[in-house]
Amino acid sequence: MGIEREKRYALLLACKDSEYVKDVYGGYFNVFVATFGKVGERWDLFRVVEGQFPDMNELQNYDAFVVSGSPYDAYGNEYWILKLCFLLQTLDAMRKKVLGICFGHQVLCRSLGGKIGKAYSGWDIGLRKVKIVKDFSPCGFQEGFDEIPPVLSIIECHQDEVWEVPVGAEVIAYSNKTGVEMFTIGDHILGIQGHPEYTKDILNNLIDRLLTNGSIEKGFAEDAKSKLEIGEPDRKCWEKICKMFLKGRWN
């Protein structure tokens, strides 16, 4: 009986660690690994926002990649964003699994030929009920996906959105605020507009920072925080969806 190969994943971090997340969680890398990883796996961190990218010759050694959220616009032309787009095109050509979260969801769409831009209805911050498209179920794993409720709450924090998915993509979730909350391409691309990895305290701190830097107004911040107090994100369900995808049980 052969020894099972160690699973290897890469986090492409498109944001810098906030002081709060560093102090409480030790950085966003730990937040992602705690949500999506498990004992016995290897997770590597690449701070793409700072120009750190995986070696192109090493890509084949990874089982999957995760692209994080970011304060940057996914439609921007900063060098690191353009380089990230090229990397995502390469991974798509290799049919490597890629999970995009928020900015990652949007930049995946852009890289593969879709259209993204500012959300027509403005900021979405707080808990949002997301509706899974009826009858969607990854072939080969219907039993597990059937356990996922048709409506899930997720933490959102974005002012950009997907306008049009790439050719061949399938929209698998939407909300009354955002038309493309999730999309897939084949069995190797999954984009999620919300933040499965976020906890309420992380969002509360982010709201404070957005208020301080003038990105949102005081009334909007107070309303977002008050609504956050009366509900809970379905983190376990989102964790299950993401793990089903990343661990190869989506096809």
From TrEMBL:
InterPro entries according to UniProt: ChyE-like, Class_I_gatase-like, GATASE
Please provide, alphabetically and separated by semicolons, the GO molecular function terms listed in this UniProt record.
peptidase activity
Q: Where is the Glutamine amidotransferase domain?
A: 21-200
GO cellular component entries? cytosol
Q: In which pathway does it act?
A: Secondary metabolite biosynthesis
Keyword Cell inner membrane in record: no
Matching PROSITE patterns, A to Z? Answer: GATASE_TYPE_1 (PS51273)
This protein's record includes keyword Cytoplasm: yes
Subcellular location(s) per record: Cytoplasm, Cytosol
Q: Which family does it belong to?
A: Belongs to the peptidase C26 family.
UniProt protein name: Gamma-glutamyl peptidase
Q: Which organism is it from?
A: Actinidia chinensis var. chinensis (Chinese soft-hair kiwi)
